[in-house]
Amino acid sequence: MVSILQNNLILTLYRMKNRTLTQKLLLGLGVLAAFSFASCQKDSSQSSVAYPFSNSIAIANEGAFGSSNATLSLYYPSGDNVVNEVFKKVNNRPLGDVFQSIGFAGDKAFLVLNGSNKIEIVNASSCKEVATIENISSPRYVTALSSSKAYVSLWGDGGHVAIIDVATNSISNTIKVGTGPEKMVIASQKLFVANSGGWGTDNTISVVNTQTDVVDATITVGDNPKDMVLDKNGKLWVLCAGNIVYDVNYNVVSETPSMLERINPSTNQIEFSITLGATYHPAHLAVNPSGDVLYYGGDYTIAGIFSFSIDATTTMSTPLINDSFYGFSVNPSNGEIIGLLAPTFTQPGTMNRYTSDGTFIKSYTVGIGPNSAYFSN
Amino acid sequence: MLVEVFLFSALSGIHPGPPVPDKEVVDTAVTLKEVVIQNRLQRYSRELSVQPIFTKDIKDYAQAQLDQLLASQGGIVVNTYGPGGVSSASIRGLGADHTAVLWNGFNIQSPMDGGVNLAILPTSFFDQVSIQYGGNGALFGSGALGGVIHLESKPDTAQGINFSLLQTYGSFGKWFTGANVSAGFKRMSSQTRVFYTEAKNDFLFHNTAKIGKPYEHQVNANSASTGIMQNLAYRIKPNQSIAASVWYQNNFSRPQPMMGAYTNHESLKWTSLRNALVWNAVAGKFTTTVKGGYFYDQNIYDNPGVEHSNHKFYVITSEAEGTYDLGKVGSIETGLIYINEQAKSTNYAGRPTRDRGAGRMAYRFNTHYLEGFASIREEIVSSEQNPFTWSAGVRVKPMKSIALRASISKIYRLPTFNELFWSSWGNPDLQPEKGYSSDAGLEVNTLLNRTTFRFVVNAFNSHVDDWIIWMPVAGGKWSPMNINKVWSRGGEMQLSVSHRMGKLNVGGEGAFSYNVTTSNSGVTRGNQLPYVPKYSGTSSLFAEYSGFRIKYSQHFSGRRFINDANVDYVDAYTVASLMVEKEFREHDFNIRSFMRIDNIWNTEYQVMNNYPMPLRYFEFGIGINFTK
């Protein structure tokens, strides 16, 4: 159809009597117009490439808020190579807006897109799209109870946890929890939900009975609990970032200190508590493979990753790694620290590998705004 | 005759075409009701690279907004978020805030963000639209870095009564109604323009970000806009006149959501009032112009549950200009400008104000083969920043049909209110962006037998220093800083040809631009700026026969990177449109009916990443013009 009209125009011009320089030029213009069609439509067929999550480190790159340029990077230690934009390469479409986190349940990976209010569910062995859970309000993290049931924390509507039916890729129920539910940990058949305060403030952990999916207890902790891990003794450690109050000009009016607290998941009792800093507000907590050393630090412009032995009673005054990480994780198979740098949200970020004592190993380019690393097995 | 009108109506006053003596062009211009006293653009356009948009093209887009008219032209990049969304222009690779938009000589860029939303300026309100490639700080002030869009709404000085009505209907529930009444009586003339347009914009698009990549109907992109412009001109004495303009407009739109992001329900309300008064007097060799303007603009953004913000700005501008005619050898002119800018916004504390005073001088010289100008400008901003700027241009005509020209200018942009005053994040210590722009070109204009031929080629080179970008700073904040440098270079080429054979008139146009605009510092040094295509162009063919007219146009844009890293990009695209119209005269009535098909080949494309553009769409219209 394209060429018919083009040809007709050109043909008409050819048929003109007494072709002059002008007419030749007109012909030239017609050809120019026709030529510009050449780069027209693009093939949108499905790609046949596949990237497994197994034996990889998966990086959630947030992208810039509102830009729908979030990406997934997979680092394969065996080949020491990073594959960027994995979701797009496999599924030939963008992942979405603000890639918050990754969860695994059964043979599926749950890619949580906070800015898109959706979870993209992909096959964990290939990253091929399976389904999308849409219209959920500000999803944050996914934690699996089993291969058929998982939980997703949602900031929207005052704070909920939704139950994902892994088989049907759908939400089966929701549970009202505190404000800004963030990380979740399952211990003693309970789901512990850190109510981080979201856009406001909170200081509680909701304890959900995983049999009845009812909130059985609420534990009061320090301000804005954001991250949690289990140590070698099965104790739950909670990182409370502290709360900052700004005035209309974003000047700090008041702030409460960050804290590290240890909870006995069987009794829901706080057994230990320590202040980390009055003006220091880290957001991430990780544990080494043997479960006896914790690492805290990270968030936007928050300097340093500090280590903390689970038996310690004082904090270290100097960081183990002195850089401003947007997020970090610890590799459960070898204890390497994966530090993620997001200097701006317009340029690709960086993944740095460090040994467990903080010695730098190597740096890799990942996507825009890397915030956390995940290990599927 | 049609050929001459076609050519000269577009070139009058701006491009005295060398195929005929300048005098003849001026006469033609007068018969086409052009202004007698030239504005600044007209006085300097011969040395600058100015592309006047054909009046026929302006008429073709009378039912559309200005962004669509500009997007149909080569050499200018219009970045649009699609139906219902905001549109801005980029010339020679620089940003929206580096493209000055002048209406009757007044800069209508927002002092808050430096932008003008071209998606809400009705084309039917302008009689002349010209694109100036390359900035010129000394002549056109702050913001004229990449180029200038000149809009002219003129009081109709013809005697008698003219009434015109345009009614169109198009795909996606688009309606446009526009009317124009003008009356001229001896010393006074009045012109009233009104329009109303609305669109559902429920267009079908390919949701390439969603699983299964379904085709969906857009649900959140409707818009409605209405406006009135009143122009009055009064000839006080044969050598003295005064003209007043009032332009009020109200717009509502829902910007379509980005694919892949949450389907939100954002809305934008814009209200603007623009008032201008111009007094002109000629006394012997002196021409004096005094003008004043008051511009008010309000923009309310709403995103339910997320953000509700309200922004207003007020600009008072006054200018006095005197020109002394040195006869055949040239002229001298001088001008004083005072601008007061104020803004009130939910993003600002208090009500920031900025006073700007500027003085400028220029000297023009003419010889038989050579003409040129030199110009200087000093601006004092709130008694602090004082960019001194200068410019010079020259034009040589070695042959009747050939002209060579070159110009160089300092260019600058004052920081916007957002950059200076955004609550706690703004940086009051920002310096103006500054640099220089140089440009050289060749023009060939011929009128041989029944063929008009026009060819223009330009090369340019610009540097901007202290380029402002927002950077993350401590405490999770972002703040603007003068840290980047940008280097823009490239060229443009335009070719238009038309030929008359009896009642048949055929022709074509082609425009192509090549643009390398790179960051010149930091880790992104050497990378192309986002959304600046290296290659873009348009081409069109038309034929006219006894009131029938058919025009086929094709627009091409090369791929555009979506951020500084130059990794991800929006695909290159080409879209085409076809317009068929019939015009006939019945007594005092001139009736024009038309049909146009846009995106005729159903191309799936995006201008801004993840914002789909509509597939093929149609528009029908009828216009009636009555003259007595």
How would you describe the overall organization of this protein?
The complex is a heterodimer of chains A (377) and B (628). Helix content of chain A is 9%, strand content 46%. Chain A has 377 residues and is mostly beta strands. In chain A, helix 1 runs antiparallel to helix 2 (21-35). Mean pLDDT of chain A is 87; it is low at 1-45. Chain B is mainly beta and 628 residues long. Chain B has helices at residues 2-11, 22-31, 40-44, 55-60, 66-71, 137-140, 417-421; strands spanning 49-52, 76-80, 87-91, 99-103, 106-107, 128-133, 147-152, 160-170, 174-185, 188-199, 204-206, 215-217, 223-237, 240-253, 267-283, 286-303, 307-325, 330-345, 353-366, 370-381, 388-399, 402-413, 433-448, 451-473, 477-501, 504-519, 535-545, 548-557, 560-561, 569-570, 573-586, 589-598, 617-627. In chain B, the strands form 5 sheets. Chain B has a 22-stranded antiparallel β-barrel. In chain B, 49% of the residues are buried. At the A-B interface, helix 1, helix 2 and strand 7 of A face strand 24, strand 25, strand 26, strand 27 and strand 28 of B.
